[in-house]
Description:
51% helix, alpha/beta
Amino acid sequence: MKALILAAGDGSRLGDLTKDKPKPLIQILGLSLIERVILTARQVGIREFVIVIGYHGDKIKTILGNGERFKIRIRYVENGEWQKENGISVLKAKELLNENFILLMADHIFDERILKVLVNYVPKSSVVLAVDKREALPGDTKVLEKDGEIVDIGKNIKESNCIDTGVFLCTPKVFNYIEEAVKEDKTELAEGIAKAAKNKDAEVFDITQIDSYIPSMRKEIKPFCIDIDSREDLVKTKSFLINNACKGKNDLLATYINKPIENFIVSKLVNTQITPNQITILTNIIAYAATFLFLMGHLLFASLVTFIVSFMDGVDGKLSRAKLASTAIGNVEHALDFLFEHSWYIGLAIYLSKVHGILPILFCTFILLFDGFSHYCGQAFGKAIKNRPLADFGRVEQVFRKFDGRKNSYIIFVLIGVLLKAPFWSLVAICVWSLVSAIFYSSRTILHLYRADKLTSIN
Length: 459
């Protein structure tokens, strides 16, 4: 499926920001608005784009090129009448779109989940408009829908019950309705959609129907679409995107200490050429430096380095989500985390064995066993119950997740033991807490899977 992106306007409401460049090239967190639109569409499998350009359109072509940099194909259409409303821009692309296509605005930041639905949607009408069932704000295009069909649409309609998100699934027939509107000197896209609505040929998809819970993020994120019209919109959207990049239901250290540090670092890194994978590599180098320091007996220095690794470990993921730069190799990160984390306890145990004999090695062995078992329980749970991870499945798990047996809890144990000059007891504490966590997660896994089996047998 192709996507048509409207990028011809001048964005005059942004003042000096668009004096020498078009609005679609305004940046948010290191990416231009139009790059965000393209990358979001690419995430759902769209690889062919038609972009209508006008005001400083040559600059858009220079930045995006033919799309090879994004592993997509881009074709451009010039709109010499870019001062007119956006319905004209849609018509300029008519000859290049002879099948169903996605219609997007270059200045709208939107949730990929909306597109996931629309690219697989079987339309009953010439146009399907994604709408948000909320109260209209000044500047919103309002929509009145009834039984899934658009009754009326426009910025100034008197009655409405949702707003236009600027994300459409269209059939080629939509061009006919826009042409009818233009013949009446109605050049707004919304006026063409209103023509289709009068013919009972326009429907809506309500984005509030999309499940707001994202298992990989362990939190609720309502599907969103943000129209960038002002400097205030830019500031709010930056904050919104960084907060959305943060995972939910974390432990206490990650929530109250690491999160603000990570967000600050990400806000600076997004405007550089530094990639998430480079952060991952650097994090691992520093992590193994901590392992070496444990082996050499520099316990306080090693312990402090583990805290540095703790907040760096969250930066790469947040950076990739903020810049829409997630890669397949990024999925290996958690395995690398598991490896370097346990190398710390091994390094500490080997050093302590010089004084305490085999006991530190035994405690370290049990830590690895218990942690591995807890991890496996989570995997078994995930295979059977896919809507939520084990650590966020119920209220009990959510509370325990705040201080359960994992890296951020263990490094606190190590630091306390080192400061009290009793590092051996740090290993003992970690071993005990890893056992408690293993018992908790295994018992909760068995309980939830038993209930799931019982429910299945009843049905």
